[in-house]
Write a structure and sequence with these properties.
9-stranded mixed sheet; single chain; 40% strand; elongated
Length: 476
């Protein structure tokens, strides 16, 4: 065992858990693979399997665990995650990798060994936390790809890749190469989905298409969430463009799970605006949409049912996504820290749930909790004392036309929070446009920026576009 490859760790049977990868170059290889492969994955609901073009496809069962790597380096065989966690030593899963050649890095799914039902990522968390001599017996590894074998790239063709992996990983009770089936049409994939997933209870299928795209086929997930904010369409200010959704933890906090822009036709968007507009609420929380517009927060009284094709519980570097949490009371919305929370993939609104309340039962966070890997849950969220923002630029202009006053204001600030909380941008540019003569007098726009130069460039662009003849600067 080489202490230059990994360091630290806690006893785990006759081996170690929670050791840390010390080889920076190896860690970069693992993270680069995860980023590259994550970019080829596509979530595809079973209802759209007919869209798959007829071509050779290799289909495997989706195993519910975490992506790890089986590595042999400097004579040591160990498992490493993209975030740098290491399992090493005399563990059953590593004993069965004795034939792995030096200089090999094999990608696979670390998962729990369970009986009578399929494995879940939560089972892995429990297995890795167990103590005792037989604790490592509860984990297994299923190889599905390779970065390199004996220092050389693996074949490109997936069937040849699996053959190469099987030659050095013959399989056992704790270690296997995923069994793959060759199919050729979307109908064949659908038939296997019906048998193995819909009827057999598997989590889903992974389809490696000849085009190079890897599809994850899982049943659509239905969720109920509180609607806590909305944005409007630029060309239809009385129609919602997107809804901001939240789930509630057992202690009553709202986890801002994400946004949904698939709201149906224009009539449905107008209907949502009519419901939400009277519910405006004061908010210390600021949230920008993908287009840069700020969400208008509302009282959490409406519940929406929506579906997602997947819940992303792990980022490309192996970290768990985090979401803002907030509380709602007499003073409106207030920040309450951040918590691990899976990201919503392709949310689609289904209906308003008038039969449900936005309480800890109706919109419970437990709907998504089981998708999280072995990390602390929402109860561990801490409302950290974050540093105050610093205003860098403030300019105000006015103009009077036909006796009506118009005001435009620019504000640029450094948040001083990006280093401490990844939900915050480093810099923010805010533009306010007020005109008493308009149907909607107040219009606002907000843009995040990674550095001060970018923020100032955005600010100057807005000034050049909006401050023309007749506007008078009145304040800084």
């Amino acid at each position: 065992m080489s202490q230059t490859i990994y360091t630290g760790g806690q006893p785990f049977g006759a081996g170690l858990r929670e050791a840390r990868l010390a080889d920076a170059s190896l860690l970069e290889i693992l993270q680069a693979y995860k980023r590259r492969v994550a970019g080829t994955y596509r979530a595809l609901p079973p209802s759209r399997l007919g869209e798959l073009s007829a071509a050779p496809m290799w289909v495997t069962r989706k195993i519910d665990g975490e992506t790890w790597f089986l590595v042999k380096q400097s004579g040591s065989v160990f498992l490493a995650s993209p975030s740098g966690r290491v399992l090493a030593g005399d563990l059953p899963v590593l004993q069965q990798a004795a034939k792995l050649p030096e200089g090999s890095i094999v990608a696979g799914e670390l998962h729990a060994r369970v009986s009578g039902r399929r494995e879940r990522v939560g089972d892995l968390a429990a297995a890795l936390a167990r103590d005792g001599a037989d604790a490592p017996d509860g984990i297994a590894f299923a190889a599905f790809d390779g970065v390199q074998l004996a220092g050389q790239p693996l074949p490109i063709a997936y069937d040849e890749k699996l053959q190469a992996l099987s030659a050095c990983l013959p399989g056992g009770t704790h270690l296997q190469v995923v069994p793959a089936q060759a199919l050729h049409t979307g109908l064949e994939v659908f038939q296997r989905f019906e048998t193995e997933v819909a009827q057999g209870g598997a989590e889903g299928l992974v389809v490696r298409h000849a085009s190079g795209i890897v599809y994850k086929i899982k049943p659509e997930i239905s969720l109920d969430a509180a609607v806590i904010g909305y944005t409007v369409k630029a060309d239809q200010p009385q129609a919602c463009r997107s809804l901001l959704l939240a789930l509630r933890t057992e202690d009553g906090r709202f986890v801002i799970a994400g946004a949904c822009g698939n709201l149906g036709d224009d009539a449905q968007r107008r209907a949502w605006f009519e419901r939400l507009q009277p519910l405006h609420a004061v908010s210390q929380v600021r949230r920008a949409s993908d287009s840069g517009g700020l969400y208008q927060f509302v009282q959490p009284t409406l519940v929406a049912e929506f579906t997602v094709t997947d819940l992303q519980a792990e980022l490309s570097d192996g970290q768990v996504p985090k979401a803002q949490t907030a509380t709602f009371g007499d003073a409106g919305w207030a920040l309450a820290g951040a918590t691990p929370s899976p990201s919503l993939i392709h949310p689609v609104l289904k209906r308003l749930r008038e039969d449900k309340a936005a309480d800890v039962t109706g919109v419970r966070f437990a709907q998504v909790q089981e998708y999280l890997p072995a990390r602390p849950g929402p109860a561990a969220a801490v409302a950290a004392a974050l540093p105050a923002s610093a205003v860098l630029r403030r300019e105000v202009w006015t103009k009077t036309t036909k006796g009506q006053l118009a005001v435009r204001k620019l504000l640029v600030w450094k948040t001083n929070k990006a280093e401490a909380a990844d939900r915050y941008p480093a810099y923010v540019v805010h533009w306010t446009d007020y005109s008493a003569g308009r149907a909607e007098p107040l219009d606002r726009d907000v843009r995040p920026a990674p550095d001060e130069a970018s923020a100032q460039a955005i600010a100057q662009e807005w000034i050049d576009a909006n401050i023309k003849k007749g506007w008078e600067k009145v304040g800084l």
